[in-house]
């Protein structure tokens, strides 16, 4: 079997999240693949547009919701521009799932704090869905999500749903100047909103994903609150090609982000060579 041969998937739904970000819901064409396909929260895949190439995205839907996968992507270059033009019914490629996953079982019985910025909500959303679909297995759920402006917030319909749930504490924020007159969320950078949300650190895990600058300034806030580095999880987005540990494109020293990651604890990240 050729490990680089993608499964064929059909676009079932296309959602315009923001001016430059879309979500595609994809279903496998081969019924055998559709029946057997499984993945874990945090894994990623190589998505391809025939004739344009491949690119790497997390699987943004949850393994608790069977029969399809979703990806959310920002249009930045060649393949993402080709993906932007796909319509419902079009066929594209997917190979995966690849990489490690979030330690969902270890998180059972604990509080979970999700912190995301911009399109960084895509990998975090997969874990949020997973946790909410198995809500009884977890304690308090806090979500802090920020974007530059109101127009840049992704998954607006889900933010609304999560905001209505009594078992979720949702904090949404936009950078100063990014608010609209009717904005009801917070105004401020993510680290300061995490401080305001003040999640308890005892028996808690933090899942964080977003721009490096957001992560850089949020980690000290979490540590000050008492979160330990082995309970802070993030997912890295190093450039990849093969996705399966063969091409050497993604490695940081001896660590292959595609195979050893993309999910790492802050303790593991601290040991990586000086690229972070
Ligand atoms: C594990 C993993 C998960 C990812 N998940 C998502 C996701 O859910 N949604 C999403 O929108 N993106 C995600 N990315 C980033 C995504 O892979 C790239 O944005 C995408 O490959 C760009 O493809 P392209 O052909 O359109 O761009 P290209 O034409 O290849 O590049 C366009 C520009 O973007 C830069 N670029 C491309 N890839 C990266 C990268 N990985 N890091 C920094 N700069 C880059 C290039 O240097 C160039 O300037 C993920 C990356 C990884 C490794
Ligand atoms: S992407 Fe090829 S080795 Fe990691």
Shape: globular
Q: Please, how many domains?
A: 2
Helix content: 25-40%
- Per the CATH scheme, the topology name of the largest domain is Rossmann fold
Contiguous runs where pLDDT drops below 50 for at least 5 residues: none
Helices and strands, in order, run as: EEHEEEHEHEHEHEEHEHEEEHEH
Amount of beta strand: 25-35%
Terminal CA distance: 37 Å
Q: What composes the largest sheet?
A: 7 strands, mixed
Q: Over the alpha carbons, how many angstroms does the gyration radius reach?
A: 18 Å
Overall mean pLDDT: 96
Q: Ions, cofactors, ligands: which are bound?
A: flavin-adenine dinucleotide, FE2/S2 (inorganic) cluster
Spatial strand arrangement across the major sheet: 10-9-8-7-11-12-15
Word description of this protein:
With 276 residues, the protein is of the alpha/beta class. The protein folds into 2 domains: 7-98, Translation factors (Elongation Factor Tu (Ef-tu), domain 3, Beta Barrel); 104-235, 3-Layer(aba) Sandwich (Rossmann fold). The chain has 9 helices and 15 strands. The protein has helices at residues 31-36, 78-84, 104-107, 121-133, 156-164, 190-197, 212-225, 257-260, 266-271; strands at residues 7-16, 21-28, 44-49, 53-58, 69-74, 91-98, 111-117, 141-147, 169-174, 186-187, 204-209, 232-235, 251-252, 255-256, 263-265. The strands form 3 sheets. The chain has a 7-stranded mixed beta sheet, with helices on both faces. A 6-stranded antiparallel beta sheet has the order 4-3-6-1-2-5. Strands 13-14 form a two-stranded antiparallel sheet. α6 (190-197) runs parallel beside α7. The protein starts with 6 loop residues before the first strand and ends in a 5-residue tail after the last helix. The mean pLDDT is 96.
